[in-house]
Amino acid sequence: MAKSPAPSKPTPAELDLLQVLWPLGSGTARQVHDEILKTRPDVTYATVLRLMQIMHAKGLLIRDESERSHVYAPAQAQESLQTKLLKDLVQRAFSGSAKALVLAALKSGISKKEREEIEELLKGEDKQ
Questions:
Q1: Residue 16: is its pLDDT beyond 80?
Q2: How far, CA to CA in Å, does 8 sit from each of 59, 97, 116?
Q3: In sequence order, what are the beta bridge partners of 71?
Q4: Residue 74 DSSP label
Q5: According to the UniProt entry, where is the signal peptide (predicted)?
């Protein structure tokens, strides 16, 4: 049995597709295309299918070929991939400083509701 390649870092288009596929858990190219059409009516089925095939070859998706229509699923859980991408961003753009990342995010503008949620989260951390 051939070993799947280690998943690579997704492109922006691949990440968009994963954002659609994660809530579904798994799906055919048709199912994913139908979901994408809700927000991006310009995307063709052929584009979605080709992107999913590329993502499978890169190790970003796994594919069940037992049915007539192949069923694809993310190779990594959403939280796992997001954590990996965040660590990479902190290293590359903020010299390894999570504090610098957080400060940059806060300076870029957050809503009052988001600020309150962050404050509550920090208060909860202080109690531990």
A1: yes
A2: 7, 23, 36
A3: 64
A4: E
A5: none
